[in-house]
Structures are given as structure tokens and as C-alpha cells.
Amino acid sequence: MPDYRQEIPFFDTAIYNPKQRSQIDLAIQSVLDHGKYINGPEVYEFSEQLSKYLNVKHVVPCANGTDALTISLLALDLQRGDEVIVPVFNYVAAAEAVEILGLTPIFVDVSYEGFNVEAPEIEKKINSRTKAIIITHLFGAAAKINLIVDLAHRYNIAVIEDIAQALGTELNHKKVGTYGDIGCISFFPTKNLACFGDGGAIITNNEMIANKAKMIANHGQTNKYEHKIAGCNSRLDTLQAAILNVQLLYLEDNLNKRRAIADKYQDGLKGISEIYLPVQQQNSFDTFNQYCILLRSKEVRQELQNNLKNSGIGVMIYYPKPLHIQEAFARYEHKVNDFPVAEDLCNRILALPVFPDLKEKQLQYIISKIRNFFNQ
Q1: What is the pLDDT of residues 98-116, one digit of tens each?
Q2: Cβ atoms of 361 and 2 closer than 8 Å
Q3: In whole angstroms, what is the distance from residue 59 CA to residue 79 CA?
Q4: Beta-carbon neighbour count of residue 220 at 10 Å?
Q5: For 202-260, how does the pLDDT look when each residue is reduced to its tens digit (9 = 90+)?
Q6: d(C-alpha 27, C-alpha 357), whole Å
Q7: What is residue 91's three-state secondary structure?
Q8: Is the peptide bond before 276 cis (omega within 30 degrees of 0)?
Q9: CA dist list (Å): 171 to 62, 109, 113
Q10: Order of strands across the sheet with 349-352?
Q11: pTM for the whole structure
């Protein structure tokens, strides 16, 4: 491999496929022509197509993934003070949604295998006040959701699956997001299925939940100017739906590209004792919205991160600080070492570029720079 600097972003949102670009241009122009920017026909088309892809009965589009979580909690009719179990190693959105509704987030530590929460740790936190569990399929890796749903059913607790990073991920040939009572999706530009701004959706097989979520997302309306409950304004606009209709056609191809890149990282980085590579659970089809490695120590991570950045390679830390020691949740008085696995992950994790259009030459450059770093 020639020793020269390449500029490789952590994620590239540009659309390079000429056919895909042309289809998106036409889809946008169609919306501009009919002018139905809110709840236009493309929104309903997208709901139907996504429903078929996921094999789920109801899709409720909304403005973003965080709204999807918030509306889902509202649709479950929880009461202030009810407890909701949340992974402590996670983006803030799930805990944030719980907190702003006056519910109580109960943090659970995660596993080194897959970085997700598991049923035994969840069960330790269940009590009479526990009303829901939010499961994040982190980085596109399937949690052991079948076991978690079985546990929740025993205690009569609702399960919300956050698949913001995991649309298309499967466990036992079934799409994640469809195991629990509700699934929540984000279409942020870096997600597996991406629009050109913010967008989200709620999925469920429960008609009552779907109807209430639709009502909440549209100002609590049953009919125009008839407001049954106080809701919010959270709609997927027609332009974004038109873009998503095209993007959905390319989703499986992009997921396969992500998996192929991950496989090459696995092969190219094996044998480096200072690195712990991702491990997939049996019978899962992970989609690698992020490809995260663990370094031997925080100091080694910092050195590698600096080295890669100096070589023009974009990397990120998911996540630098666990939720229990974020100031936003200080009132719960958690301390350092309360969730040791999450804290350890935050100190040692590093995400490498894994976007679908990452070129082979770029991928091999990244692998070579990492191997060279550890061979010094």
C-alpha cells in the first residue's frame, strides 16, 4: 500500500449512484409539481412500502426518531413517575424521551458482546413501578430481543425497540423492531435508510397503539379541528417521504455493502492483540450502522485516533460518556462505577468508517494504517 495521505470522511452522505440520483430528482420534482407538502401521497406510499418491507401492520411516520420514542411512550398511557428501563450505553434520545414526559429512566448496564442490554440485567431492575423497557439495537447489532420480550411478557411490561441504527437487522430471520409492542425508527442522513434531513416512524402490529400514535402526532386530532387529546405536531413531510421511497429501493444493497465492509475489517484487523473486534450473536443479520472496535486502553485509543485523523481518516467515539453521569440525569445521583461495562466501553471504543460507498482503496488504506500503527 503506497504511503500517502487520503481524505476519508467518517460518513459521506453524497449519493453517487447516477440512477438513484435521477430517481430522487424526479421524486422531488413530482412533489414540487403537486404541491402537497404535508401528508401528500408519497407519505402514504412510503408507509405502505415500509410496512411490506418490515412485515408489520402499521407504520406511523413522524418528524424524527426522538419524536417516535416520545409518541410511543405517550401511546402506552404511562403515568408520571412510572419507570422505564433504558440502556445506559446509548445515545441520549431514549432516556431524554422518558425524562421529558415525567417518567423515570432506570438505567441498565450492557454486555461486552454486542454492546446491548440482556434479559438477566434487565430483570434485576424490574419492580411494580416498571411499565416499559426500551431496547436499542445498538450500532445495527441485534439485541437478544426474543429473550427480552419473553421476560417482558412474564411481567406484563411493554417493549419499545429503538431501531434508529438497525433498520433491516434481523434475528432468526425476523426484522428487529417487530418483536416488541412498538418499534421506533430514525431516517437521519447517516442511518441505514436515510432522508435528506430529519424523519422518523413508529411501527407496531397493535391497532390501538397505531391509532393513538397517529392522533398524538397530528395534534391529537380525530378529524380536522376535532382534538380528542393534547398531541403534538410531528409529521414526516412529503419531500422527505418522496426521497425515502427511492432510498428504500436501495436499502438491501446498501446493507449488503455495509456487511461486506465489516467482513473486510474483521479479516483485515484479525490477529491484532490490542483490538477487540465486533462479535455477532448466532442467527443474527447485523447491519453495521457503525463498525466499532475496542482498544486495549483509553490511552491506546487516543493514540490510534490521533494517528488516523492525521492520516486523513475520519473516526468517532460512540459514546464518550455514559448516560448515568450526564448532567441531564444528575438528579438520580448515579456515581462513577455504577455501570462498569458502559464506562469501560466509553473509554475504549472507536468507530471506523463503514458507509456504503466507502471504496475498496479507502478501506484498505484504513486497515493498513491501523496495522502499521500496531506494528511500530
Answers
A1: 999 999 999 999 999 899 9
A2: no
A3: 25
A4: 16
A5: 999 999 999 999 999 999 998 999 999 999 999 999 999 999 999 999 999 999 999 99
A6: 22
A7: coil
A8: no
A9: 26, 22, 15
A10: 275-276, 291-295, 349-352
A11: 0.97
